[in-house]
C-alpha cells in the first residue's frame, strides 16, 4: 500500500482502525520527501522532529479514542508565509531567512488542535509576489509533471508538494490566485475561501484586504474537510465572519441537478491555449450531463481586474512591508550605519528581491499625495464595479465556471525577464480577490501533457455549493486521481 497517495479520508480510516499509525504515515512522508524533494524542491524547511512528536501524540489520542478528528494524525505542509511557533517562517525572502515566530497563526493552531502533523514549510514567491515560484530568494520549485516547468505561484511549493505526494494536504494562501493558479498548473484541488472566512492572524500580510488562506488537497472532499477545521470567527482577526460554518463534508453529496452554471464570456476569449479551451468545454458538458443548466453571463469589467488588482496590491504591500526594517523581524544590516535610517535602507536593500522592491516603489508612488486620487482611489472605485459584476451574475446563476489560466504551466525562465507577462498569467484568477468571493480550482484535463485547471466561483460564503459541484464533477471524472511519474 502506498501511504503517500491516500486521500485524507482513506488515511483517516486506516488510522482509526489501527491498520497504520500516524508515526508510520509521517515516516512514509518524511522518507518520500528525502527521496523526491531534492528534484521538486517544494520544501524550504522540513520540521522532522516536530512532525514525529505530533504524530506520537496523535497516536495516543487515537489509542484513547479521545478527541479524534478527521485530521488527527494526518501529515500536512504549510506555505512559508504562515507563522509556525518555533519553526522558521521565511516568506522565501532573505529578509526573514532566519526568522522564527514566537506564536502560531490561528490556522496553525487550529490544525494542531485537530491533531494534524506538520511536516514543514513550503516554498513560495517572495512575500507571495509572483506566479511561478521563481521569485523565491532561495531556489526554484519544479512542476512534478515536468521538471522543466514552473509549478505556478505564489503557493508553488504547496501545489508541487501536493502533486508529488509529499504531504497528505497542504495549506496555501491566495491574494490574487496563489492557491488556484498553482493548483491548476500542478493538477490538484485548492480553494480560495470567501475573504474573512479563515482568520489571517499570523499570516504575514501581502495585501490585507485580499489575503485568504486556503487548503490544497487531492480532491474536493478533502478540501471541504480541511476548510471545516480552519474556518471560522477569530477574535484576533476582526475581518472574520461571525456566521457559522456549514458542515461542508456532510453536505457534499447534496444534489446539484437544476443548479444554474454561469459561463462568463469574458473568460473565454482569444489567446487561450487550444488544449485548455477544449478541456474547459468538456468540463462544461460534464456539468450539463450532471443536470446543471448552462447560461452565458457577462462580468463586463473583467478587463480592469488585472490593473485594479495590481495597483491595489502594490499599495497595500508597500504599506505592509514597511515593518520589515531591520529593527523588528529577521535580517538587520547595521554594519557601518550612522543612524536608524541607514539600518532601514541597508537592510531593505540587501533583504528584498527585485520584484518586492519594484512593487514597494510602485505602491508608494500610487499612495503618494497628488497621485492617490488618480490611482489608488480610482482603483478602489473600479474594485466596487468588479464586485457588482459578480453580484449581478449571481442574481441569475448559482455558480460560475472559468479556467484558472490561459495556458498550462510554462517553462522555468520563460517569463522571468518580463514582469508584465508574468502578471498576465493571473488574468483569470485576480478578479475574485477584490470582490471577496470564494473559488475552488480543480483539474479538468491535460494539454501538451500538462494539467489544465478550472475554477468554480461562488457567492459570498457559499463554499458549500462549490464543494458540491466540484465533488459531483470528480465523481464522474478521474483527472484528480492522476499522479505524475517523477523521473
Ligand atoms: N500572482 C499574484 C501576484 O503576483 C499572486 C499573489 C498571491 O496570491 N499571493 O501578486
Please give a handful of descriptors for the protein shown:
487 residues; alpha/beta; Amidase signature (AS) enzymes; 38% helix; binds glutamine
Architecture blueprint of SSEs:
Elements (H helix, E strand, L loop, with lengths): L7 H9 L5 H19 L2 E4 L1 H17 L10 E5 L26 H9 L2 E6 L33 H8 L5 E6 L5 H7 L2 E4 L19 E6 L2 H11 L29 E5 L9 H16 L3 E5 L7 H16 L19 H12 L2 H14 L4 H23 L4 E5 L15 H6 L7 H4 L3 E9 L2 E8 L5 H14 L11
Parallel strand pairs: 2-3, 2-4, 7-8, 7-9
Antiparallel strand pairs: 1-3, 4-6, 5-6, 5-10, 9-11, 10-11
Helix pairs in contact: 2-3, 5-6, 7-15, 9-11, 9-12
In a nutshell, what does this entry contain?
By secondary structure, the protein is of the alpha/beta class. Helices cover about 40% and strands about 15% of the residues. The chain has a domain of about 260 residues: Amidase signature (AS) enzymes, CATH 3.90.1300.10.
Report on the structure:
With 487 residues, this protein is α/β, with parallel strands linked by helices. The protein has a domain of 256 residues: Amidase signature (AS) domain (Amidase signature (AS) enzymes). It is 38% helix and 13% strand. Strands 1-3-2-4-6-5-10-11-9-7-8 form an 11-stranded mixed beta sheet, with helices on both faces. Helix 2 runs antiparallel to helix 3. The radius of gyration is 21 Å and the shape is globular. Bound molecules: glutamine.
CATH architecture of the domain at 3-258: Alpha-Beta Complex
The ligands bound in this entry are:
glutamine
How much β-strand is present in the residues? 5-15%
What is the helix tally?
15
Instruction: Give the name of the CATH superfamily of the domain at 3-258.
Output: Amidase signature (AS) domain
Structural class: alpha/beta
Mean pLDDT: 97
Strand order of the largest sheet: 1-3-2-4-6-5-10-11-9-7-8
- Which term fits the overall shape? globular
Q: What order do the SSEs take from the amino end to the carboxyl end, as H and E?
A: HHEHEHEHEHEEHEHEHHHHEHHEEH
Radius of gyration: 21 Å
CATH topology of the domain at 3-258: Amidase signature (AS) enzymes
| First-to-last CA distance | 21 Å
CATH class of the domain at 3-258: Alpha Beta
Low-confidence stretches: none
Largest beta-sheet characterization: 11 strands, mixed
Secondary structure tally: strands: 11
Q: What proportion of the residues is helical, as a percent range?
A: 25-40%
Amino acid at each position: 500500500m502506498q501511504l503517500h497517495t491516500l486521500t485524507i479520508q482513506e488515511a483517516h480510516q486506516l488510522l482509526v482502525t489501527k491498520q497504520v499509525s500516524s508515526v508510520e504515515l509521517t515516516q512514509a512522508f518524511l522518507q518520500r520527501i528525502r527521496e523526491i524533494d531534492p528534484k521538486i524542491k517544494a520544501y524550504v524547511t522540513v520540521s522532522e522532529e516536530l512532525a514525529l512528536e505530533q504524530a506520537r501524540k496523535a497516536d495516543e489520542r487515537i489509542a484513547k479514542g479521545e478527541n479524534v478528528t478527521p485530521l488527527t494524525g494526518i501529515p500536512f505542509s504549510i506555505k512559508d508565509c504562515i507563522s509556525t511557533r518555533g519553526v522558521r517562517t521565511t516568506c522565501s525572502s532573505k529578509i526573514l531567512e532566519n526568522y522564527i515566530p514566537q506564536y502560531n497563526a490561528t490556522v496553525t493552531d487550529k490544525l494542531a488542535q485537530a491533531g494534524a502533523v506538520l511536516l514543514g514549510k513550503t516554498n513560495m514567491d517572495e512575500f507571495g509576489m509572483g506566479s511561478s515560484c521563481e521569485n523565491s530568494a532561495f531556489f526554484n520549485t519544479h512542476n512534478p509533471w515536468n521538471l522543466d516547468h514552473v509549478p505556478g505561484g505564489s503557493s508553488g511549493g504547496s501545489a508541487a508538494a501536493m502533486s508529488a505526494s509529499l504531504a497528505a494536504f497542504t495549506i496555501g494562501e491566495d491574494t490574487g490566485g496563489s492557491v488556484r493558479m498553482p493548483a491548476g498548473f500542478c493538477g490538484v484541488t485548492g480553494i480560495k475561501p470567501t475573504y474573512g472566512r479563515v482568520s489571517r492572524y499570523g499570516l504575514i500580510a501581502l495585501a490585507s484586504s485580499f489575503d485568504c488562506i486556503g487548503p490544497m488537497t487531492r480532491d474536493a472532499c478533502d478540501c471541504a474537510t480541511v476548510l471545516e477545521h480552519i474556518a471560522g470567527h477569530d477574535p484576533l482577526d476582526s475581518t472574520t465572519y461571525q456566521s457559522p460554518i456549514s458542515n461542508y463534508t456532510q453536505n457534499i453529496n447534496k444534489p446539484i441537478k437544476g443548479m444554474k452554471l454561469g459561463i462568463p464570456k469574458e473568460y473565454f476569449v482569444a489567446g487561450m491555449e487550444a488544449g485548455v479551451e477544449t478541456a474547459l468545454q468538456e468540463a462544461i458538458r460534464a456539468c450539463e450531463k450532471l443536470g446543471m443548466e448552462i447560461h452565458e453571463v457577462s462580468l463586463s469589467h473583467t478587463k480592469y481586474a488585472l490593473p485594479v488588482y495590481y495597483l491595489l496590491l502594490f499599495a497595500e504591500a508597500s504599506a505592509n512591508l514597511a515593518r520589515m526594517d531591520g529593527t523588528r523581524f529577521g535580517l538587520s544590516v547595521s554594519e557601518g550605519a550612522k543612524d536608524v535610517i541607514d539600518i532601514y535602507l541597508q537592510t531593505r536593500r540587501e533583504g528584498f528581491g527585485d520584484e518586492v522592491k519594484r512593487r514597494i516603489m510602485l505602491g508608494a508612488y500610487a499612495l503618494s499625495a497628488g497621485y492617490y486620487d488618480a490611482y489608488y482611489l480610482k482603483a478602489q472605485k473600479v474594485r466596487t464595479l468588479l464586485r457588482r459584476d459578480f453580484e449581478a451574475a449571481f442574481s441569475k446563476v448559482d455558480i460560475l465556471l472559468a479556467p484558472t489560466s490561459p495556458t498550462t504551466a510554462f517553462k522555468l525562465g520563460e517569463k522571468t525577464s518580463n514582469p508584465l507577462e508574468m502578471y498576465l498569467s493571473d488574468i483569470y484568477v485576480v478578479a475574485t480577490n477584490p470582490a471577496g468571493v470564494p473559488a475552488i480550482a480543480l483539474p479538468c484535463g491535460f494539454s501538451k501533457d500538462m494539467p489544465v485547471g478550472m475554477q468554480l466561483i461562488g457567492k459570498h460564503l457559499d463554499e458549500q455549493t462549490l464543494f458540491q459541484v466540484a465533488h459531483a464533477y470528480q465523481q464522474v471524472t478521474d483527472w484528480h486521481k492522476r499522479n505524475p511519474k517523477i523521473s
